[in-house]
């Protein structure tokens, strides 16, 4: 079996050009997330892609290549690290890898300083897939989630990077608190890490959208499904991992 998103343009980028754009998301996670965007298109779920923490655009480009005509991709970043040339490198990669400049929006700002109205005005419609990968403090993650959920398509996905990461142990507690304050939302799937840099992602969606995605992820990536699942207390989320295995006990 080949490990693909199902969108040829995205799969070509991930196979051939992913490493030419500096970044931190794994190929494993990008492929699975692109599969989700492909599935949304097949289900008729229309909307934009938005990302907090775009850096040079490694993950952004994979998702943007999967969008349908008329949909746009918004990148929010302070674009000042490691230097002020970052935003030019980002736009350069997007152009080099075939993205239409008119479909790309970059906002140079700390996400916590933006309002929903600013995001809505830049896109003009709901976001079907948010990737949150900016400042990894509990306060910023809470602000980023509160911002993102306001523009989220009712059947859309919030995807959080660096979850369950040894360097950011407080973030999963932040997510738990946020889910408690947003009872319509629940954990959909954990996409496990490739390594300490290419770390795990958590996908969240409305409870009434889980059935659109959960079993499909298992069916699409059976050789990466960890069957014990992710225990969130009152329900289980899907776990996809590069090398699923269970402990040998005899
Ligand atoms: C780990 S990198 C993102 C990697 C990228 N998403 C990828 O997959 O390749 C984190 C980025 O978040 C940006 N960042 C940090 N704090 C931020 C904030 N408050 N708002 C927006 N972006 C922020 C940094 O400038 C940096 O480019």
Structure explained in plain terms:
The structure is a single chain. The protein is an alpha/beta fold. The chain has one domain: Rossmann fold (3-Layer(aba) Sandwich). The chain is built from eight helices and nine strands. It has a nine-stranded mixed sheet, sandwiched between helices. Helix 3 links the parallel strand 1 and strand 2. The structure holds S-adenosylmethionine (SAM). The site of S-adenosylmethionine has 20 residues, from helix 3 and strand 2.
Task: Describe this protein with a few key phrases.
250 residues, alpha/beta, Rossmann fold, 9-stranded mixed sheet, 8 helices, 36% helix, binds S-adenosylmethionine
Give the CATH level 1 class: Alpha Beta
Strand order of the largest sheet: 3-2-1-4-5-7-6-9-8
Category from helices, strands and their pairing: alpha/beta
Return the average pLDDT rounded to an integer.
97
Q: Count of helices?
A: 8
Query: How many domains is the backbone divided into?
Result: 1
First and last CA, distance: 30 Å
Q: Looking at CATH, which topology would you report?
A: Rossmann fold
Order of helices and strands: HHEHEHEHEHEHEEHEE
